[in-house]
Target: Acetyl-coenzyme A synthetase
Amino acid sequence: MSDILIESVLQEQRQFPPPPAFSAQARIASLEQYQQLCQEFQADPQGFWAGLAQRELHWFRPWEQVMDWQPPQVRWFVGGQTNLAYNCLDRHLTTSRRTKPAIIWQGEPGDVRTITYEQLHHDVCQMANALKALGVQRGDRVGIYLPLIPEAAMAMLACARIGAAHTVVFGGFSAEALKERLRAAQVKVVVTADGGWRKGAVVPLKPQVDQALADGQVPSVQRVLVVQRVGGCAMTPERDGWWHELQPQMSPDCPAEALDSEELLFILYTSGTTGKPKGIVHTTAGYNLYTHITTQWVFDLQEDDVYWCTADVGWITGHSYVVYGPLSNGATTVMYEGAPHGGNPGCFWDVIQTHKVSIFYTAPTAIRALIKMGVEHPQARDLSSLRLLGTVGEPINPSAWMWYHRVIGGERCPIVDTWWQTETGGMMIAPLPGATPTKPGAATLPLPGIQAQVVDRQGEPVPVNQGGYLVVTHPWPGMMRTVYQDEERYRRTYWEPIPPRDGQHFYFAGDGARRDEDGYFWVMGRVDDVINVAGHRLGTMEIESALVSHPAVAEAAVVGRPDELKGETVVAFVTLERHYQPGDALKQALLAHVVQEIGAIARPSEMTFTDALPKTRSGKIMRRLLRALAAGESPTGDISTLEDRGVLESLRPQPQ
Ligand code: ATP
Ligand code: MG
Model:
């Protein structure tokens, strides 16, 4: 028993073939077509990527070598020169996309801006010239700390245009977390705003920047560029300047620099779900190609789509699938500043109805929150413009998948459950909506060009339906290049956990997964979170999904607690749907439900009802904090990414 790495106990047999009407219009319309792409890659991996790079991107200079793989270091399109901002903007201006909306933005108070490709190009050039005027040169780092407003995308593109690297820090982070990230990247200029709107209130941002920079704590920062969003803030003379004052002085002429393929594009910190966030490094050409092509494939992007990804630009999803992937493809990308909350539970559905969104991409955490808010909100809106739905960020519980499919997708929209990470740059395992039959809770199959496997510690593939470690065995263009200024951490975290064998190297993702009889990948949770009960190693996803499949449960997290007899026992934290009251009877019913769904082995020994679970600011459940609480310890380690410290306090054992 103990040689099984992670045991699967979940029974999930439902299957949804791509709707024929969808496939009929799709770019990749059948499994055969998908398999053909995979075979093209197999036959000639470098030729496969080179062909796409040639066809899909503009090059100022062709590359000399497609891939240079010196494990674990990789370089793509070596010797070539391109520019991500050029690919996202300039090349569309000579086509009918010139007057097409590039960004449709809606502020939380309801203000709307529609920015065409031509206008976006104009503004990005001005912003690039402004950065130059503030002293930014090719190779410098720029910090971006903004609400979700168009200027966030403009600042990113402006950096990419002149060869400065950006490091975007989510606007919800504290001054302390901001300071750490600005210091680590030796940022020269910070682009921020006076504040933004969040859940019905103004969130000040500039005061956080002032605090982070106070007393020369980040000596590298020379200037701060401030966007006016909420009415003003204190300014430090000499250091700070208003964007709206600078912009009119800036020329809209700023040719895109021809940048080397491997030019540093950005540094971005991971969500910090499992520990201290890592500064992930991505470079220009490979990242551009990979986010471009995956946007096309997985969202089956068509010219008239209105595409909306709800992520903040402070996360990788915002980088790859709000800004770069969609714009490189000439798509219309929707940005919405707000988030659903008690005062505005239908705001997402309003955005879809108003802007006729056709592709909607969000996170399981948002779906669970929306389920809790009630079906009456989506049902009161016209969602008929939708044709495709997606999820990213965590495994999605099958019952949440079914709700999404039924209530939001009207049973007509395929769902793409996309597995990937900050480190992978773009989506890795995901259905192609016109080709791949979906199963609720499965990320399905690796994208063409991605060699993913589930293996044991020795790199040996595990048998069908047994859990193991999710790895990738061939480099891909969007792969991270290193941890910023910490090559050692890069090797240790990603390449050493499973040692190379027979010349094969294993990128270790840190997630547990199994493959079923169709070769589908089911992500079972983080390897760090596996619970070992009497020799059975259980992933968190399956037990949580069993709990969530009960009508009373909105959200659940399970962790292991050390136990003398069993090794560990399962401890569950549960939040309830509206109209359900916590109590002993319900607890017994839920325990019986878990036993019935997946067996006695997974039965929690303890269950705590709570109003909320501790989450990262990107909405992921932080099980490591719950694990410490369950063991009666004080949570240690980095909690800078914890969204709400109050949640943790309320879960601490109360002195009797
Ligand atoms: P840290 O690495 O700092 O702990 P993080 O892993 O949460 O933070 P991200 O890069 O934002 O940081 O998230 C990637 C992780 O999110 C994946 O490793 C996986 O655990 C989870 N994930 C993302 N998408 C999916 C998905 N579709 N299904 C299952 N898990 C997913
Ligand atoms: Mg991670």
Residues 270-275, 277, 316, 392-395, 417-422, 443, 509-511, 523, 526, 620 surround adenosine-5'-triphosphate (ligand 1) (CB under 6 Å). The two ends are 40 Å apart (CA to CA). The domain at 534-651 is CATH 3.30.300.30 (GMP Synthetase; Chain A, domain 3). The mean pLDDT is 96.
